[in-house]
Amino acid sequence: MLAGTLAFVAGIYCLLQFSFLPSFWVIFFLPVLFFLSMTYSGIRIILLFYLGFCWALFRVGSEIGHSLDLDIESRDVLLTGSVISLPEINDDQVRFLIDVNEITDGQRRHYASPGIVRLSWYRTDITPATGEIWQFRAKLKRPHGFMNPGGFDYETWMFRQGIKATGYVKSDTFNQRLEVSKAYFIQRLRYNLSQKLKQSLDKPLLGLVLALSLGERSQLDSNQWRILTRTGTNHLIAISGLHLGLIAGFIYFLVQFVWRQFYFATQRIPAPIIASIVAFVGAFFYAALAGFALPAQRALIMIAVFLVSLFSARQLLIVNVVCIAMILVLILDPFAIIAADFWLSFMAVIFILYITRFRISKHNRLSRCIRLQCFLSIALIPMLIFWFKQIPLYSILANLVAIPVIGFLIVPLSLLAMILLFPFPTLSQTVYRLIDAISGIHWSYLEFLSQQHNAIIPIAAPNLLSLSLAITGIFILLMPRGMPGRWIGLLWLLPLLFPNAPRLNAGEFEFNQLDVGQGMAVLIQTKQHTLIYDTGARYSERFNIGDAVLIPYLKEKGIKQISMLMISHGDNDHIGGAKAIIDNFKIDRVLSSVPAQLPMESAEKCHAGQHWTWDGVEFEILHPHMESTFSGNNASCVLKVSSTQGSVLLTGDIEREAEESLLKNASERLKADILLVPHHGSRTSSTPDFITAVAPKVAFISAGYRNRFGFPKQDIMSRYETHGVGMRVSNKTGELSVIFRKGGFEIDEFRSKNRRFWHH
Hints:
Blueprint: H1 2-15, H2 30-39, H3 43-64, E1 76-83, E2 88-90, E3 93-104, E4 110-111, E5 116-122, E6 132-141, H4 154-161, E7 163-169, E8 176-180, H5 185-200, H6 205-214, H7 222-231, H8 241-259, H9 263-268, H10 271-289, H11 294-310, H12 318-332, H13 340-358, H14 365-379, H15 381-388, E9 390-392, H16 395-420, H17 425-450, E10 456-458, H18 464-477, H19 489-497, E11 509-513, E12 521-525, E13 530-535, H20 545-557, E14 561-567, H21 572-575, H22 578-584, E15 586-592, E16 604-605, E17 611-614, E18 617-623, E19 638-643, E20 646-650, H23 656-665, E21 674-676, H24 688-694, E22 698-701, H25 714-722, E23 726-729, H26 730-733, E24 736-741, E25 744-749, H27 750-754
Helix pairs in contact: 1-3, 1-12, 2-3, 5-6, 7-17, 8-10, 8-11, 8-16, 10-11, 11-12, 12-13, 13-14, 14-16, 16-17, 18-19, 20-22
């Protein structure tokens, strides 16, 4: 069964690697393979592979068939639908999911409903409740996210969640509640519970209880997430396999114990059967509280398969139980295969079975639990490096305490307090005070670990081959005692821990313009130095480009120290992510036209004439001059990077006046192979004389998808094309990477190279 399961999984995975969907006619070859497999047994593996491929194709067809009509993208529309998620209230916005029933435009023309839409409502005191039917005036657009190495793939996440569009509510008298739907009873219950908890509890306890009781993590603040991430315990703040498994296991053993005390009951229904049924009902109830999120659905299926196997008339091999669970999970959600939590869940189960069978079978119960947790933490390190590019150094110490405290104390007590919340509010508050006391002591322990030096060890992203070798090495290391040559497993880990990253030679440099929406962030590397030019925007207390894009990108490349941080000027879309970089990396030098706006006393003011050389690559500031009176956009630091292999000119947001100053004072040094187009392609920049002086071969524009400014302007694009300049715009290309080596340079577009059929 194992070979067939792997073939089925491989078929699904193969389909999800396509840039464009194959024709649906390929499904009609399935019956041919079926009849061939009846005659030739060797065809059965191919049949199962093709079955997985076709099942994923069928499911994709049903998902992609509903999408937002391009004719109404970024136009005012009137929509009606049911709110189906708990509203997230952050800063000055309310965000929620709405299942759209009807869409019309200003002329009352009807358009096909895309299905689920993620809406944001800014600067409002109204919070749409889960289960209510609302009508809104809104602007919608298809899902579009940043595309960078190592970064969060927002479009893939939206695809897996079934979200077909995003948008925002416009201020209008049309926005009003129509009625309460009866179709979303569970979601309505979750909303009422969350509202009651928000009235009863204060932060930080509120965030923890909501996350562990209802799967609602929006109330966890940035400091809580930082502590959880640095201690490797963030997996515990989600209602998934671990929590559902612990609840199901606790109920199973409790019911079995009680049932066995009644002889007449065991004669009618065996204790394992009634315990399994009640355990599944309990897990189902807990998954319902989580809104049947995808991780909870997968965990519920796995629990059901394992419980059925306990009292099955036919003894099932444990490997077959795992295979059945995996197949059922992928039938329900074939897109789970591209999610980190899918692989972490199943690999954790496989390692638990392997460890309990070969390494801890002869120890007492407490020793087994401790050793299992230690071995499991080590076993999952390759997966953590592959998916998250880091190792939480103290995760073993943190999880040894966090798993029993959260799993056996906080989660059960939270569920008990929630059950008591309405009938016995005073008693419920007493339980919550107990939870607060327990979590306070526990949180102090996690905070202490998170503050230790090198709590997080970043490691450059490995490839699939390195991951496969490392997992094999872990299995070798965990072989039973007495097996010779177990230490060889360490050798299999080396490609993962020490990836063979391509190195630059002296005189070569790499230029990377990151996809950061409407903003700018650039990374320049020489053989031994790294420069960051601008850091994108800061959108809220919880989200900035530094944390969301730059830090994951630096981890992906294995960069641990920044030689120079340069902030061209003080606009939010250029300086917003700077604090995140300053807080997380050692930075040798900081230059900016607005040093006072940076949280570093050592920040210097950039000015024309500053010049340095790194590894045979020259860096020169061309603007502004010390005596200039420019401010704002026109005071942007203009940097030229050049070597014998090529050159790049970075211009920040300079406008016409600054361009004229550059033409007057540095016209002979402006020529460059690649130009970072001034001010995102606005009409206030890129004068014909400036383009002529730079004479770039290619021009890069950093601009957000359907941004409110309409950048880049089409007439500016045409102006560059008239000068024979090739154009690249980040919202279409994703991250742009150029390596200047002997023989010239080649441009890589991350979106083009990594596009899947669901991407924009």
